[in-house]
Amino acid sequence: MSSDALSSDALSSDTVSSDALSSAPPTDSHRRALITGGGGQLGQELRDTVPTGWTALSCTSAEFDVTRPGQVGEVLERVRPAVVINAAAYTGVDAAEQEPARAHAVNAAGAANVAAASRVVGARLIQVSTDYVFGGALGRPYLPDDRTEPLGVYGRTKLEGEREVMRIAADTSVILRTAWLYSGRGRNFVLTMLRLFREREEVGVVCDQVGTPTWCRSAAEAIWAAAQRPDVSGIHHWTDEGMASWYELALAVQEEALALGLLQRPVPIRPLRSDQYPTPARRPSYSVLDASATEAALGLRRRPWRVTLHLMLQELVRA
Fold first, then answer.
1. Cβ–Cβ contacts within 10 Å for residue 255, how many?
2. Is 154 part of the annotated catalytic residue set?
3. Which of 115, 193, 257, 289 shows its CA 20 to 30 Å from the CA of 13?
């Protein structure tokens, strides 16, 4: 999905499309950000939540290919942003098992390309990462410095991307791990559940994988808070508050959607063990992230995941 096409005089607005990359950059480079992966659900939320006084140049993956170091360097040299938010990612957890080279090119080599070009132009980098860098055996919420142990190609390539960023630009970069993202746009678990509830007489959902459902709006707000704090660096965690299994999330989606009129009838939801729903990629059984240090560093308070789920579904009602 392409960004809206705007002319070069739109550079003074909060968000401009990648068409503006060929124009002269804004004069205030101290409040200019470049968003990669702008067509994804997180990228779109980042576009919608640009802080007052900032200009954001948003590029879809088709328009700004992180796997092409020459293009990455050329664009950053021209735009010279203060902050680069790298939301571009290969996020197909199962597909990555069949396409490991492509996942590595985007998630690992792509992150290295963005980090290197950001360092050349003096930009801070905020690299978006995932709870799937962990193996799930810890039994308590994961701290940023806990041992990583990805179970599949997706998590492994995202971890490789983290390590590349730290190798190239540790002092000027933030790695923000988040989890179980959803929004009212794109492809995600919550929208898939709404569709299945309308189409089927019964739905089966895995009940033995636990994490934290997180509205993309919450992640975007944390990313922008980090963008405005040049003293913050290193690895950080951010999700909504609390934890749930996929089954518990499905129950909540149906309950909230029925109350809001998004669904007209309830359907039975059957809990499944992971071995009853085999997938190409293994997922961690427990990947809750401890975000307390990030709350303190950014001066933000997380909202319970059930609250943010309700807010997102309310937006669907108004859409």
1. 15
2. yes
3. 115
How many residues in total does the chain contain?
Answer: 319
β 210-211/244-245 pair status: antiparallel
Residue 134 has φ and ψ, to the nearest 5°, of -100, 155
Q: Of the listed 90, 142, 154, 247, which one is catalytic?
A: 154
Tell me the average pLDDT of the chain.
91
Beta bridge mates, 291: none
Strand 173-178 with 234-237, pairing: parallel
Instruction: Identify which of 297, 249, 301, 282 has the alpha carbon closest to the alpha carbon of residue 136.
Output: 282
Give the dihedral sign, CA 90/73/222/187.
negative
Q: φ, ψ for residue 305 (rounded to 5)? A: -65, -30
CA distance 224 to 206: 33
Residue identified by tokens 């579904």 is 313
Give yes or no for a contact between 283 and 249, defined as CB atoms under 8 angstroms apart: no
Q: Say whether pLDDT at 37 is over 70.
A: yes
Tokens representing 156? Answer: 């492994």
pLDDT one-digit tens code per residue, 145-204? 999 999 999 999 999 999 999 999 999 999 999 999 999 998 999 999 999 999 999 999
CA distance 164 to 71: 19
Considering the entire predicted model, what is its pTM?
0.90
Which residues, in sequence order, are CB contacts of 315 under 8 Å at separation 6+? 184
Contact between residue 125 and residue 66 where contact means Cβ atoms under 8 Å apart? no
Residues 129, 86: Cα–Cα separation, whole Å: 9
Whole-number Å distance between alpha carbons of 21 and 25:
7
